[in-house]
Amino acid sequence: MKGSMAELKTKINGIEFPNPVLTAAGPNVRNGELLIEAAQGGAGGLVSKTISTVAADDPRPTIRCLPCKSLMNCETWAETPPEEFIEDIKKVKSETVPLIVSIGYKPEEVALLGPLVERELHPDAIEFSVHYVGRSVEPIVEIARTLKEVVTVPIWLKLSPNFLDIEELAVAASPYIDAFVAINSFGPVLDFDPDNVSPYLGSEYGQGWLSGSSILPIALSIVYRVARAQEKPVIGVGGVSSGIDAIKFLMAGASAVQVCSAAIKNGHSIYGEIAQGIDRWLDSHNYGSVSEIIGLYGKSLTKRKLFTNKPKMTVVEENCVGCGVCVSRCIQGALSMEDKLCIVNYDRCIGCGFCAGFCKFNAMELRKG
Ligand SMILES: Cc1cc2nc3c(=O)[nH]c(=O)nc-3n(C[C@H](O)[C@H](O)[C@H](O)COP(=O)(O)O)c2cc1C
User: Fold this and answer.
1) pLDDT score, position 2
2) Whose CA is nearest to atom 18 of ligand 1?
3) Mean pLDDT of the chain
4) Nearest-atom index, ligand 1, CA of 184
5) So what's the architecture of 305-367 in CATH?
């Protein structure tokens, strides 16, 4: 990347990505033209919209930006027949970044689409979504096994966040796949227009799938758990819209991130902006490369201070500026201000740590009780 100081390259299954910010399957990458625009916007890799053996026909409206700023959608897979989609995507191969084609869903469908995509497009990898195939482990492993047998390129399993035991699935599927992608959108969820008492989306009862910033903590947890449970690389997706978001996924164990909702909201330049944000963060924290921070979070946990008895919130007096923000945030009424200094009433303080999250001056610290 132009002007980049840190090394942003990342490698997954031997595929080299110039930066770790990839597109995620969605309307932002539903044809060749949009994929090329994503590459021009700075994406380090291109993952296309999921195709299945038949074109989808989704009820409108399909996407709504909710009051919580996240998106709710009822889009399924590509509305273009697979042959037409593949023909259109051929123009994307001239782009210099890797191409990953997303397919779904059942074993017989991926058995048909996998070889077709490999022969016609020579993608760097094939991602397969299991969004509509239930929550049990065995049917998903069967899809992975089926696809592995019929293609030679690496295959990436895109996980949905609804599995009850994500570790069990990760361990069972790991031998048959080359990487995990976590996560797909979360749901089903519901929001609607109360003034007109009407659904936002055209789907059955207006339900949809949640994506964007609200699902970031869910995705981060699944990425961390999948990366810890088995050896195959993990690609993080869910609510990434800034360099710092991406840094968290890398630290949780992801080798790259994917972006969908932030691109729908902000346009194709978001991929490059996130990559630049990663670069700036690495530089300002004295890291030389993306690879240095992958999995750092798990490693840091071994050094964590654990409180064996109830800790006490302690005011670091030299840092306290007397702003009073902590006082206004304490629902226990345990904090007060005296002579521009925060005082803790230990009869009321429960040591929850909530106030510390609002102190910009590192003046609130939990210490051994
Ligand atoms: C409108 C829309 C359509 C989507 N279509 C697909 C799809 O076809 N295949 C798929 O695997 N994921 C699909 N997704 C899920 C995204 O790829 C991604 O996993 C999810 O939205 C979380 O990432 P985000 O918060 O960056 O959007 C879609 C998401 C949205 C918002």
Assistant:
1) 47
2) 184
3) 96
4) 19
5) 2-Layer Sandwich (3.30)
| Ligand 1 in reach of 185 Cβ (< 6 A) | yes
With a 6 Å cutoff on the Cβ, whether 48 touches ligand 1 is no
Asked if residues 47 and 25 have their Cβ atoms less than 8 Å apart, the reply is yes
Check if 10-300 and 305-367 are the same fold.
no
- Are 124 and 98 in contact by the 8 Å Cβ rule? The answer is yes
359 C-alpha to ligand 1 centroid (Å): 35
Span 1-37, pLDDT tens digits: 545 689 999 999 999 999 999 999 999 999 999 999 9
Contact 211, 226 (CB under 8 A): no
Residue nearest to atom 4 of ligand 1 (CA): 26
Is domain 10-300 given the CATH code 3.20.20.70 in the classification? yes
Among protein residues, the one with the nearest Cα to ligand 1's atom 29 is 26
φ/ψ of 337, rounded to 5, equals -115, 125
Domain range list for the chain: 10-300, 305-367
Name the 3-class secondary structure at 65. strand
- DSSP-derived secondary structure letter, 97: S
> Which H or E run includes 145?
helix 137-150
Q: Tens digits of per-residue pLDDT, 242-265? A: 999 999 999 999 999 999 999 999
Indicate whether residue 49 lines ligand 1 (CB < 6 A).
yes
Query: Distance (Å, rounded) from C-alpha 163 to C-alpha 159?
Result: 8
Q: Does the Cβ of 212 fall within 6 Å of ligand 1?
A: yes
pLDDT value of residue 3 = 58
Q: Is the pTM of this model over 0.85?
A: yes
